[in-house]
Amino acid sequence: MNAYDDSSQRFLFDEADARGDCVRIRRSLSDMLANQVYSPSLRSLLGEFAAAAVLISNNLKYQGRITLQARSNQAISLVMVECSSERHIRGIAQGDLASEAATPLILLAGGQLVLTVERDAGQRYQGIIALEHASLAEALEQYFSQSEQLGTRFWLTSDGEQGAGLMLQQLPEQISKADLRAEQWNRLCILTETLRPHELLGLPPEELLFKLYQEETVTVYPPTPILFKCRCSRERSADAIALLTESERAEIIAEQGDITMTCELCGKVYRFGPEVLAPHNRRSTLH
Predict the structure, then answer these.
(1) Which of 228, 247, 267 is the last residue of a domain?
(2) 283 Cβ partners below 8 Å, 6+ apart?
(3) Tell me, what DSSP letter sits at residue 274?
(4) pLDDT tens across 150-191, in order?
(5) 238 and 132 share a domain?
(6) pLDDT tens track for 54-71
(7) pTM value surpassing 0.85
(8) Domain count along the chain
(9) Are 64 and 117 in contact (CB under 8 A)?
């Protein structure tokens, strides 16, 4: 395992109105995938979703989280990855988890890609786009072209064991005239198009950036860690149980001895006994 695994590293072009992020996930991806047996294609798809979710979450200027999910009527009905502003990721896929495809995104053909941004304070924003592209990177680029006025490009890859991504984004006009600004952006995109998947997965971030942009002046910021961390809790599980009627809870406890709640995203098990029948445990709201 390398020191730059499970990290996100920002960089800024000193003489162009553009910035970027480079993401690599290994242990956090392994932890995220450990609760289910996924096919190689689905592991790769989840790896790309996870890398993309981290790249997008780096744009959050407040405490909160983004959820990147796709739904379809194909063998895979759902792929979802969530990333918080602290770069804590968790995710899951549902459907035929043994499904394979030469191009993993085909497993979601005809579906929709949904990006949800939530502030801890409660505000929520959601955008939707049809999945009509050959890759997740292309789908995200179309999404951002419709929702942002700043150019945004993605390069994503995953081999199922690790995931990686690079994002370039224009900054609001600062140092360049309009024609020079467009020329700079096109040049940076052309340079980044030379990137190969094995380089994105294998090269240390600073070596990767030097290879791509050795003629540019680039400021590289210190890496920040990425972790797998689930938001499930005993309290959330108790809230879900509270949605059952008292008779339903009593029946389950009589038959099984307790009520068991298992988190689909991390596999953690919460067990509840007769205490959920006590009057003070009756809840009227879901938190």
Answers:
(1) 228
(2) 238, 239, 242
(3) G
(4) 899 999 999 999 999 999 999 887 766 778 888 999 999 999
(5) no
(6) 999 988 777 889 999 999
(7) yes
(8) 2
(9) yes
